[in-house]
Specification:
The chain is an alpha/beta fold and 264 residues long. It is built from 9 helices and 8 strands. The longest helix is centred in the N-terminal third of the chain and has 20 residues.
């Protein structure tokens, strides 16, 4: 009678060589942040950073834009004091941390540079090329784009591992979501440092890859396109589409409100 064969040994479990999160070094702090482009979004981002304790270098080639940014920050922080959300001393400190400059060379002192100029690739490429020359070697360059290729911008610099996307939503002081866009070239250290900054600001960082629209706007574009197709084909009126999304899906507004009245 044949002796039963011994059971085959269980396969060895792979050894987990990933670093222990509890012993991983903390990301380097990004104390000084430059914001390039002081339009509505740039000014909002500057306010968030300033109120979060960061020294902010606001850069805009137009003197009028810089004056508007300072006035907007003064008005917003005054409202915050009136509503009990910050003290007068905290307001004074926040305003003192915000300085404006008319030249990109001011970004040389920054640990992180956030570009928020017009959504026009040649313009962004020109700004990034200048910032790549001006910013210190270890500084991180971030773009606020929501539609252009972050990878393409990164590849045109000498520091592609220190380039990523940082997509705030308007109005930046009120909206919690920030999409942190890493490309195939972005280093984990750069992503970790920026993610830590976003979280310290009281925002919700969501990691995303580089694709048009990222997550939120990528979904929104499809939603708006479907709404437009229904209206243009005569399937439904604008009012009925809005009502269906507000009352049926529980959204605070329909596609007309999401796109803006000037677009529908």
């Amino acid at each position: 009678m044949d002796r039963p064969s011994a059971p085959a040994p269980a396969p060895a479990r792979p050894v987990d060589r990933s670093p222990d999160p509890s012993t991983a070094p903390s990301p380097a702090p990004l104390s000084v942040v430059a914001v390039v482009g002081l339009g509505t979004m740039g000014t909002g981002i500057a306010e968030v950073l300033t109120r979060g304790g960061h020294e902010v270098i606001g850069i805009d080639l137009g003197d009028a834009a810089a004056r508007r940014a300072v006035a907007a920050l003064e008005a917003s922080t005054a409202r915050a004091v009136a509503r009990g959300r910050m003290s007068a001393a905290e307001r004074a400190d926040a305003l003192a941390r915000f300085r404006t400059f008319p030249e990109l060379e001011a970004a040389a002192a920054a640990d992180l540079v956030i570009e928020v100029v017009n959504e026009h690739y040649p313009t962004k490429r020109e700004v990034f090329a200048a910032l790549d020359r001006i910013a210190r070697p270890g500084a991180i360059l971030a773009t606020g784009t929501n539609a252009l290729s972050v990878t393409r911008l990164a590849a045109e610099t000498a520091r592609p591992d220190r380039v990523l996307g940082l997509h705030f939503f308007a109005p930046a002081p009120a909206m919690k979501l920030v999409e942190v866009v890493s490309t195939v070239l972005t280093s984990p250290a750069a992503t970790a440092a920026v993610t830590a900054l976003v979280r310290a600001l009281g925002k919700e960082p969501v990691p995303v890859g580089d694709r048009p629209g990222f997550i939120a706007d990528g979904l929104l574009f499809g939603y708006l396109n479907q709404a437009a197709a229904m209206y243009e084909s005569g399937y439904a009126t604008r009012e009925d589409i809005d009502a269906a999304m507000r009352l049926g899906c529980g959204l605070p507004m329909g596609p007309r409100g999401a796109a803006g009245p000037d677009r529908c």
